[in-house]
Amino acid sequence: MALRLPRPHRFDVYVAVGGLLGGLLLVVLGLGTRQSDDPITLFDGPWPVLLPLGVMAACELLRRTAPRTALLTGTAAITTDLVTQGNVATILMFTDLVYAAVLYGPPASARRIPWITGLLTVAGTLVPFAVWRVPEALLIGVVIGIVAFGPAATGWIVRDHRDAAAAARLRAEQTALLAEMDRSQAVSAERARMARELHDMVANHLSAIAIHSTAALSIDDPGTSKEALSVIRENSVAGLAEMRRLIGILRDAGAGTEPAAAPTLDGLTALVDGARANGLDISLEPDHGKVPAPVELAAYRIVQESLTNALKHACPGRITVALARRDGVLDVRVTSPYGHRDGPRAPGSGAGLVGMRERAALLGGTFEAGPEGTLWTVRATLPVAEGAVE
C-alpha cells in the first residue's frame, strides 16, 4: 500500500516557491554568503548551492504537516550549504523551519528545540573564542543565535500565546455552557414551583366542586341541591381568586420572592373552616408561633393538600391538624381515618404527595405519608432557622 504524504498548506507552497525563486535569482546574480577562496568552501562555484537550496525548499512544503521531519532534513541541508559558497535564501528558509517546528510540532519538541538551540548558541560563542582567542570568534555564536535560537524563541512565544488564547476560548465556551445549564435548571425549578402552586391552590376547590356537584346530581332533594350549589359557588369564587393570585405571580417580574398575598399560617383557621363547610370533621391544634415566610407557605400548602386528599379519600371520622415548633423545626401532622372505600369521591392525579415531598425537600426537611393503623398520617418536619423570625 503506497504511503500518501499529507497535502501541504497553501501558504507553505508560497513560501517554498518564493524561497526557491529567490535563491535561484541570487545564484544567477552570483551573490553568495562566502567567497570561493574561503577555507570551509569545499565545493567551489555557484551551482553546488542548488542542492541544499532545493532540499530546503522541499522541506518548506512540510513545515506545517511534518515539522520535525522538515527540521531534521533542513539541518542536513544547512550543514551541506556551509561547505559551498552559501545562499541567503537557504539560511532564511532554515530559520523558518526552526520557527515552524516549535510552533506546529509536538509539545515535547516545542520545549526541547529552544533549549537545544540555546545550548548551541552558548557553545558556538565560548568554544571558538577559547580556541582562537580573538573577538571575531564570538560572531559565530551570534550567527547561531540569529539563525537558530532566535526563531525557536519566537516560535515558543507565539505558541504560548496561541495556547493561552485557545484555553481562554475553551473557558469561555465552558462558562457559556454552565450558564445555559444554570438557566435551564432555573427554568425547570420555576416550572416545578408554579406547578406545585397551581395544584395546591386549585385542587382543593375543584375537588369540593366535583364532590358537591355529584351530590347535587345524584340526590333528588331541593334542599340538598341548594346547599351543594352554595358550596360549589363558594369554592368556585375562592378558586378564581387563587387563580388570579397565581396569574399575578406569573406576571410579576420581581426578584424571585413570594408576593405579599402568599398564604400564611394565620390563614389555617379559614382553610379549616372551608374544609368543614365541605363536610369534613376537623380539629386544629396550632402551636407554631412565628416562622419564616417560606416555611409558612410550605406548611400551609401541605395542610391544604392533606385536607384535599382527606376530602377525596378519607373515611368518615375526625381529622386532626397539628402544628408544633420545637427543636428548631416546625412539625406538621395531619391524620385522617383510613380504611377501605369503593373509590375516591373525586378523581386525583397523584401529584399531591409529590408536591408536598418537594416542598419539604426544598427547605431541607423531611416528609412521610402512609397508613398507621386505622389512620392515614401525613407528617412533615420543616427546619426553622433560629433567630430568623422573632
**Side-by-side strand order of the widest sheet:** 1-2-3-5-4
Largest sheet: 5 strands, mixed
How far is it from the N-terminal to the C-terminal residue, by CA? Answer: 85 Å
Morphology:
rod-shaped
Helix content: 55-70%
Rg over CA atoms, rounded to whole Å, is: 44 Å
* Percentage beta strand: 5-15%
Residue-averaged pLDDT: 83
Order of helices and strands: HHHHHHHHEHEEHEE
Q: Work out the number of β strands.
A: 5
Could you name the key traits of this structure?
single chain, 390 residues, alpha+beta, Heat Shock Protein 90, 2 domains, five-stranded mixed beta sheet, 10 helices, rod-shaped
How does this structure look, described?
The chain is an alpha+beta fold. The protein folds into 2 domains: 10-173, no CATH class; 266-390, Histidine kinase-like ATPase, C-terminal domain (Heat Shock Protein 90, 2-Layer Sandwich). It is 62% helix and 11% strand. The chain has a 5-stranded mixed sheet with strand order 1-2-3-5-4. A hairpin with a 2-residue loop joins strand 4 and strand 5. The longest helix is centred in the middle third of the chain and has 81 residues, at 138-218.
